[in-house]
Design brief:
431 residues, alpha/beta, Aspartate Aminotransferase, domain 1, Aspartate Aminotransferase, domain 2, 13 helices, binds pyridoxal-5'-phosphate, PyrdxlP-dep_Trfase_major, hydrolase, pyridoxal phosphate binding, Kynureninase
Length: 431
């Protein structure tokens, strides 16, 4: 598509957008002038669906009226509530329902899955991850390695971009996997890097990892609800994600986990167990000796956090109503492409501002990461002051994510206007 830098053009795209009405399903926070803000931070916390409060309210009512009986009675018995989330979650990540469970929080799920999928031996004990991974992932791996009596410096191998580049090349990732060979126990990477917005080639990485006998998993915090995923077909071993970013399920909301179907009937696969992962037909016999449920459900520890699960259920229903990830992706590529077009037009030099997110749409999701070499903090504060909500990542990156469920082309146009006004006040940098 040939983009045009005009409000008319943006409004025309909105008029043609089959998902345009979905914005009405969300609460858009007010900006400084009392009008709706320009929200570009769905990569950090998705907006509240208008259906969320009633969904939680319903469970408050059930609790009020049914108390302990709510586990077995009412419109959505709590005993089985998590089962209702497996189907919609599986559609988000490209899995079979038996491969998915909704439980805990993201970092907790990462630890639980690593117990099963990072089982180092004397010779095969290395972990491959992206350098500068999200801190929680770094700390999780560091302490998992220590749990096995290993030194993080020795066991953890980090991938870094080539000098002068900001993102990883797939060929370099694959070469490192091959080089580590039989010493490699587990590959764990983001599906999308939180800082640069780069999408990794999960299918190729999984194939390469399996070729050397390693397990391969992904942290999908920035990928779930952002890009189409095919975890089952890609043959990924395990994955986890949070639901408060692109899945709009509320701050600290319940998270997801994926375990490939080939492990569904391996009760002997080591895991940390709890009663909710126990074979549900026998759970209440309270016997000694752990016998897991089939599939990902066998990794559950505790009975479900119903209030946040109810919100998640309402949010997932919106993704389904919008036509799923393929429909969202079509709009997302255009929205992000339009933002890129408007930023590129500013005519700022690379030594002032550069987009470090890959230009190839196949290698990115919603988010663009702007590396602002000159007056970055000033730009960020200017954006916030005029009601553009993005986020700031040290040392000098601004992340902006137009989200297809609730952002409009007009939102993107207006951010472009704010950026253009700021850019016009910048001194050209001496070469
Ligand atoms: C957002 C995010 C987290 C957050 O972890 P929580 O356990 O949900 O607090 C972890 N890892 C990545 C890659 C993230 O983007």
């Amino acid at each position: 598509m040939t983009f045009e830098p005009t409000l008319d053009f943006a409004r025309q795209l909105d008029a043609q957008d089959p998902l345009h009405e979905f914005r009405q399903q969300f609460h858009i926070p007010p900006g400084p002038n009392g009008q709706e803000c320009l929200y570009f931070c769905g990569n950090s916390l998705g907006l509240q669906p208008r259906t969320a409060r009633a969904a939680a309210e319903q469970q408050f009512t059930n609790w009020q009226n049914l108390a302990v009986e709510g586990h077995f009675r009412g419109d959505s018995p709590w005993m089985n509530f998590h089962e209702s989330l497996a189907g919609p979650s599986a559609r988000i990540v490209g899995a079979k329902p038996v491969e998915v469970v909704v439980m805990n929080n993201l970092t907790t799920n990462l630890h639980l899955l690593l117990v099963s999928f990072y089982q180092p031996t004397a010779t095969r004990y290395k972990v491959l991850m992206e350098g500068g991974a999200f801190p929680s992932d770094q700390y999780a791996l560091e302490t998992q390695v220590k749990l096995h009596g290993r030194q993080p410096d020795d066991a953890i191998v980090e991938l870094t971009p080539r000098p002068g580049e900001h993102t990883l090349r797939t060929e370099d990732i694959l070469a490192k996997i091959e080089e580590l060979g039989e010493s490699l126990a587990t590959v764990i990477m983001g599906g999308i890097n939180y800082y640069t917005g780069q999408v990794y080639d999960m299918a190729a990485i999984t194939r390469a990892g399996h070729a050397v006998g390693a397990k391969v998993g992904f942290d999908l915090a920035h990928a779930a609800g952002n890009i189409p995923l095919h975890l089952h077909d890609w043959d990924v071993d395990f994955a986890c994600w949070c639901t408060y970013k692109y899945l709009n399920s509320g701050p600290g909301g319940v998270a997801g986990a994926f375990v490939h179907e080939r492990y569904a009937d391996q009760p002997e696969l080591l895991r940390l167990a709890g009663w909710w992962g126990y074979d549900e037909t026998e759970r209440f016999k309270m016997r000694k000796g752990f016998r897991p449920m089939r599939g990902a459900a066998g990794w559950q520890l505790s009975n479900g956090a119903i209030l946040t699960m109810a919100v998640h259920q309402a949010a997932l229903a919106l993704h389904d109503a919008a036509g799923g990830m393929e429909a969202l992706r079509r709009k997302s590529e255009l929205l992000t492409g339009y933002l890129e077009f408007l930023i590129t037009r500013l005519g700022l030099s690379k030594s002032q501002l550069e987009i470090i997110t890959p230009a190839d749409p196949a290698q990115r999701g919603c988010q663009l990461s702007l590396l602002v070499h000159q007056n970055g903090r000033d730009l960020f504060e200017h954006l916030m002051a005029v009601g553009v909500i993005g986020d700031w990542r040290e040392p000098n990156v601004i992340r902006l994510a137009p989200v297809p469920l609730y952002n409009t082309f007009e939102d993107v146009y207006r951010v472009g206007e704010v950026l253009a006004e700021w850019a016009s006040r910048q001194q050209p940098v001496q070469a």
